Amino acid sequence: MKKTLSGMMCAVFALATSLTTSLTSVVAHAAPDGAAALAIVQKNNCLGCHAVKTQVVGPAYQAVAKKYKNDPSAPDKLFTKVRNGGAGVWSEIPMPPNPNISDADLHTVIDWILAGAKS
Ligand code: HEC
């Protein structure tokens, strides 16, 4: 009896652990960490041309969030656009390519922008 009980406790613990882990990743996806995203855009000089709330050379990140809020292809589209650069969506001023930001960082930033660019 004692043995069965400890086996059960073990299973409960394992379940709780995996639940916590999957919950954490769901939360992380739904609400990207603003501080982490801001650190990434600062490090990669995105803020030389963009701000969260106001247009600089490029559009405000909150304006980008609004524009693509009903576009399910936005994450892929924006990933490619930021990576390769381009013009013609907001104005004829081009965004230069951004080859140095890592794939993971760029995904984090795009998720954060599309979630409303909250700090
Ligand atoms: C030299 C200035 C410059 C830099 C640096 C820059 N951008 Fe841009 N960005 C622009 C301009 C200009 C546009 C508008 C392009 C257009 O109208 O198609 C833009 C557009 C965007 C868009 C919207 C794209 C679209 O098609 O709607 C996103 C998202 C974006 N930038 C993110 C970033 C990120 C992330 C970085 C840093 C890795 C970055 N930008 C660096 C100038 C810049």
Describe the structure.
The protein is elongated and about 70 Å long. With 119 residues, the protein is mostly helical. The mean pLDDT is 86. α2 crosses α5 (103-114). The protein has helices at residues 2-30, 34-43, 61-67, 74-84, 103-114. It has two domains: 1-30; 32-114, Cytochrome Bc1 Complex, Chain D, domain 2 (Orthogonal Bundle). 58% of the residues lie in helices and 0% in strands. The protein contains five helices and no strands. Residues 41, 44-46, 48-50, 57-59, 64, 78, 81-82, 86-91, 93, 95-96, 98, 101, 109, 113 line the site of heme C.
What structural keywords apply?
0% strand, 2 domains, binds heme C, 119 residues, mainly alpha, Cytochrome Bc1 Complex, Chain D, domain 2
The biggest beta sheet is recorded as: none
For the record, what is the CATH homologous superfamily label of the largest domain?
A: Cytochrome c-like domain
Radius of gyration over alpha carbons?
A: 20 Å
Count of alpha and pi helical runs: 5
Q: Roughly what fraction of the amino acids lie in strands? A: under 5%
Low-confidence stretches: none
Unique ligands: heme C
Q: Write down the overall mean pLDDT.
A: 86
Number of beta-strand segments:
0
Task: List the domain count as a whole number.
Answer: 2
Helix content range? 55-70%
Based on Cα principal axes, name the global outline: elongated
The CATH architecture of the largest domain is: Orthogonal Bundle
CATH class of the largest domain: Mainly Alpha
The CA-CA distance between the termini, in Å, is: 53 Å
